[in-house]
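S1.2 Input.
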Amino acid sequence: MVSLKLLLLTVCLVKLLSNYLVYGNNLLYRELGCTSILTENSDAGAYDCGNFETRSADKCYFYGKAYDLNQELSDADSITIPCYAACKCRSTSFKGENVASFRCANVECPSLFNRRPAEPCYYQYEKDNCCEVKTYCPETKSTVYQCEYDNIMYKEGEKIYINNNICICKPGFNGTINNDWCREIRCNNEINNIKSIIAKGAPVYFKTSEGCPIEWLNPENIPGTAGKFASAGKSQIVQKCKYGSLELLVGQELEIGDLSDSESYKTTCSCEIPPFITCLKQIKS
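S1.3 Output.
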């Protein structure tokens, strides 16, 4: 029988992932402005993130744009992350040094604390809003505009996840990614996890790396050692993954001890696409 603890952890993870269903691991590198290093098959086998190492410690960065201390995130950038509010560049202490990082308020949606409305009522959303904009109760099902995507029907105002975008069912929707009804989902690692990135921590994904990290492992709190090779490394990739000062070759596992949730979840880490380690968390059967 599934324990109450496991059930609650699963519910929390599902809620956390509801906005991040379709991102890939490579988007972390894109967010940091890293340059891809292609293999002989033209795949991104590794990334060069040297530009991150040379960033100014007294500036915050958002998708390549620099902000001075005490400067607020611009309206143009804020609208791309509607689940955050009042983001401002602040100075904080990390490893005895001052580091600039954004501090934001999290937008809490009423639907997170309430039961879903009973049929035929449902929540409606808009592209540039984090939360539901209203609860709509149609008089009859036939009065509701519907969209079809991937053989699934959606009612007007419902979210549709397409690749790394949240799209909204509305008149005119044709299944393509269009600014009229879609916005890109962003992982916002530079806002949430800048200290872990600086420390060369490891992003942790739920079940598959086709998603935003749900947490990061910090090498100072969770030490690791180089383990066996879980898969054959790409011989032409000479770049290594780093976990703190530890270096691993492509295909090599990172051995870590038990985590606080090890009773219910299994976390495995390995070097897939340097320079960051990739960790996957799965529910134990």
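S1.4 Remarks. The first strand starts at residue 35 and ends at 38.
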